[in-house]
Each structure stands twice: as C-alpha cells, then as structure tokens.
Amino acid sequence: MGATDRPDPIEAAGLDELRALQLSRLRATIWRAWECVPPMRAKLEAAGVHPDDLRTLDDLGKFPFTAKDDLRDAYPFGLFAVPMEDIVRIHASSGTTGKPTVVGYTRGDLDAWAGLMARSIRAAGGGSSDILHNAYGYGLFTGGLGFHYGAERLGAAVVPASGGFTERQVRLISDFRPTLIAATPSYLLTIADAFEQEGLDPRGVGLRIALCGAEPWSEGMRDELEARFGLMALNHYGLSEMMGPGVAQELAEARGALTLWEDHFFPEIIDPDTGAVLPDGKEGELVLTALGREAMPLVRYRTRDLTRLLPGEGRAMRRIERVKGRSDDMLIIRGVNVFPSQIEAVLAAEPRLAPYYMLEVTRPYRLDELAVMVETRPDARPAGEAERNALEAEAAHLIKVHVGVGCAVRVVPPGTIERSEGKARRVIDRRPKE
Ligand code: DLL
Prior knowledge:
- By secondary structure, this protein is an alpha/beta fold.
- About 30% of the residues lie in helices and about 25% in strands.
- The chain has helices at about 15-35, 40-45, 70-75, 105-125, 140-155, 165-175, 185-195, 220-230, 340-350, 385-405; strands at about 85-95, 100-105, 130-135, 155-160, 180-185, 210-215, 230-240, 245-250, 255-260, 265-270, 275-280, 285-290, 300-305, 310, 320, 330-335, 335-340, 355-360, 370-375, 410, 425-430.
- The longest helix has 22 residues, at about 15-35.
- 5'-O-[hydroxy(phenylacetyl)phosphoryl]adenosine binds next to helix 5, strand 7, strand 8 and strand 13.
- The site of 5'-O-[hydroxy(phenylacetyl)phosphoryl]adenosine (DLL) has 21 residues, from helix 5, strand 7, strand 8 and strand 13.
C-alpha cells in the first residue's frame, strides 16, 4: 500500500478536534474576506458585523450570505483576495443566463483541491494501483481537471479522456481496462449505450467503481448504471464556487449519503425563504463557507442545493443526503414543486421505460402544463397504439401518485431523446417570462 492510499489524519479526528480546526479556519476566512476583498468587507459592514464577532461556530449565523449574484457583480476578478501574481488557475461556469461565475486558485488552493480529490477517490475505494478513466469535461468546467489532479495525487494512472467522442471512449475503455471511471451519470449512460451499439458488453471490461456527480441523479439511475457496467456507482458532489468537485463523497461502505469534507467546507442548512439556520436533519438549502481558501474566501455561500445534514459514518464529519435538485431548477407546476430527479425516480421503476427523458413545461392558456417525454427500452417497444397509450397513462398515473403533479406522458422510440455528453439537459421551459 502506497503512502497515498492511507486516509488523511484529519479523517480520524474526533469532534472536538474537528470543531476547533473549523473555528480557527473560519476566523481566518472571515478576516481574509474583510482585509483583502473590498466588496465582501462592504457587505459585512452593511450587516454591522466585524470578524471579531465570530467567537464560536454558532456566531457564523450573524454574518451575511454570499450569493451567485455577488460573484456576477464582481465579474470577473472582483472577489479575488490575492494579486494576480498569486493566481495560478482560473475556472468559470457558464450558467444559463448572464455572466459566467469566475473562480480563481492560488498554488495553495490547487494543492488543497488535489488533496481533497485524492481523498474522495480513496474514500470511494480507489487507490494508487487503479487506472481512472476521466470522462468529465476538461476546460473551464472544474470536473475534468479536478478529478485529474486528484487521481494523480493518489498515484492512480489517469486517462484524460474528457467528455464527448463517445466511440473513442468505448475503445479506450475496452483497450486500457480502467478500474475506475469518473463521469456525469447521464454521460456514463451514454457510454453504456455506445458499448451496446458496438455489440460489446460493458460488464466485461473490469470497471469497479464509478464516481458520478455534477448533476442530480436518482437511485433508479444508480441501479441502471451498476447493472449495465457491473460496478459500484458512488455519488460525488461539488460546485465551482467552492472549488469544484471534492466537496462531498459517498463512501463505498456507507451508501445513501455523502461525507462532506468538513475540514475545508463548513456546512449550514437554511430555510431558503427566510434564511434561518435549520437544525441537522431538516431539509433545506445548503450553505457553505470555504475554510482555508486563499484566492476566494467565500463566506456563507448559498448553493441553492436542497439537502439535509446527517450524522457522520465512521468519521466525525457530517454527511449530506443525495442532492435532489437546486431550488432554482425546481419547477413549480400549478403550485406543486417538482424536481426532474423525482420524475426520473418514478420512471426508473417502470421496467419498460428507459432512463432517457425530457420535461417540457408550457402555459397554453393560464395554467401550466407538464409534458414528459420518455423512451421505451429497445426490447419493450409497445406493440401498437393501444399498448403505447396504456403505458403512457400508467406512467402519468405513477407520476401523479408519487410526485403529485398531473402530466401528459409521451412514450417515444429508443434513441429519440438527445444524449448527454456532460450535464444532461432535462427541462425545456416554454412558459412566457413574466
Ligand atoms: O458540477 C463540480 C463537479 C464536477 C461536481 C464533477 C461533481 C463532479 P458546477 O458546474 O459549478 O460544478 O455545478 C455545481 O451542480 O451546485 C449542484 O446543483 C450540481 N451538482 C454537483 N454535484 C451534484 C451531485 C460541478 N452529486 C452544481 N448531485 C451544484 C446533485 C450535483 N447535484
């Protein structure tokens, strides 16, 4: 076993040691924001708080939130706490509207990031003798380079495949026989299809573990990926504003929730409407404060991701429940809150349907209409119109029962819905903008 295959000492820390480390790092973050980032200092001043007001971890609640708009307002580099000579990397996430959010890293930040990614891959069951096929996009997106440097830090052999060129992915995986694969769950599914189109069995290539994240996905999708590749698919969470991937990792031995690397990110759960801090176990919006970030010391960043904080498993660090979606991706259809991942979970339970779907929301008159397009499995095509109508009615009924929203389901032939090469696009919202 190589030195990199051992857990980081902090992973074995008790609660007191962890909380003490968090408090000292939290103070450092807030001081750094105060001293080096004028827009952040202005926010603290406007809220009437000073770094000295942070005496205990509970005092964090007195400090103002940071939101995506703060990053946009400071576009591109206004939130950097160090001069450009100390910045060695810049990433950006495109977002759907407006300016991208820009994230800067010092050498120290990159070092910490690689360490957290190595820790994540190791906690998922990877090690220095593994080959990791990295199908996250390389570029401004943090997924590709984040996994790349983490796997190298661990001592694994990285294949920097990036996203897209799916036939080449199949060839590389068949020939190089990687044991780990990192990809968005929707793209991993696209790769599974490409294997089958070439008459190859993805179960035969020897992949052990998939590290899937960057988008919401369901347990049904996990079952599908695990069955098709014969591997264990584990959830990985992160966001560019906090660094990129490497914030929380689902462990092989404790599936269902993801261990949050609390030595680098201090979590809170808030009520998204009032901003009030909620106790552990309650569902709400995840708010993260960077502990130890040099280039961008973000305080109480509102992720918009909805989850719960759960007790740790084997570590003092708490876990987060699978993120079911972002509050700003949540569709409100005739008053019902709907996440695409909830519909995915329902569709996945119907064996005749494939995990390719798309939601379309319209407002033909005054009321919202939800249409769900979903593919059948190639071996379960409805024999005729009557059978298709029955399947559509049944799927709509299941969605009504489990998600609480009425919709029209249209079952379409295999291959109709656009395949993902990264983050899947699940929703077309055609409602007029108010
Ligand atoms: O998606 C970083 C990443 C790369 C994470 C690779 C995991 C693997 P962004 O592009 O900034 O960064 O998007 C961040 O994606 O706020 C969530 O809404 C969503 N997201 C990320 N991971 C998960 C996950 C990367 N495991 C945004 N489950 C986040 C659900 C996820 N949603």
